[in-house]
User: What shape does this take?
Amino acid sequence: MNARVERGRRASLRGWGGVGAMAAGCALALASVLLLPLTQSADAPDDARRPGAGHVAAGSQARAEDCKDPEKQTLPPSDADGPTIDAIKAREGAKRKLIVGVDQNSYRWGYRNPNTEGAELEGFDIDLAHRIAEDILGDRDAVQFKAIPTNQRIPAIEDGRVDMVVRTMTIACDRLSEVAFSAPYFKTGQQVLAPKSSSITGYDDSLAHRWICTATGSTAYAKLAQDRQNGRLPASADISVTVPNQLDCLVRLQLGQVDAVVTDGALAASQAAQDPTVELKGAAFTTEYYGVAMKKDADDLVRRVNRILVDYRADGWQRSYDEWLSATLGKDAAASKPPAAQYLRDS
Assistant: This one.
């Protein structure tokens, strides 16, 4: 049976979509009560709407065209303040907070827990943001969270809407020309998520004639586009369906509007935990690292975050992993220990 016909049949018969529709409804219901201000693109792509000089020495981060091992292209740690940190500390009254772009619908990473008073934000990324605020401002709660869609992470930093983004953001060479990154705080890789009943087996020829969903501006989409050009991904695989937020891909998968999702395995595992009808297919086919993203010239803030991460790896990272991620990724998985950090030399 043609894959697109099969997809349409699933949408009509809801063979596994009864659970999917219920989960999608839950996702939409939760979205309606979210309290954080969303910063969405005013011109969302059509694909998403259709079915289917300071107190510290300046360093030099690598240009994207010279980039190798992007997770190593960051500045050495420092406790010293600089102009960026001074500006954050100079905020007065209720505005004296670290402004952090986060996700609010990635289960166990950054999500609103409806079982807490006020549907508090919780997750692995949220713990890290609190730790950074505690170090810089002396108060772990001195943080203002702003919900940022995947495709708005870099614009939010460049426009000054946030001081940093802590949002499962992969350190990538092409992004280094636009923002600065901390040292890595998590290791992951791209994987395929599909219904358990699907004949898809992983990132292979079983994706031929399939519709694949990715988030706009994600490293997943960039990888798929590159691999379709070089022949690693079947030319018949349709990668045109992109969405502002990764969770939207799961909803489309649940509704039978796409055949598979490609995203970071760490995120995909959390999505599979939300919906027992889907699963990871095959092994990870990339190696990627999450980092804290900041403004390109915020050297002092980059250095401070890297100093915080040194301490966090020794005290805090493991507790957060065990609380939020061990249930979906495993206590002894490759990702269950913080990645090592390497830094550029000062110029």
Notes: Confidence is low (pLDDT under 50) at residues 1-6, 8-60. The longest helix spans residues 17-33. The first strand starts at residue 98 and ends at 102. The radius of gyration is 20 Å.
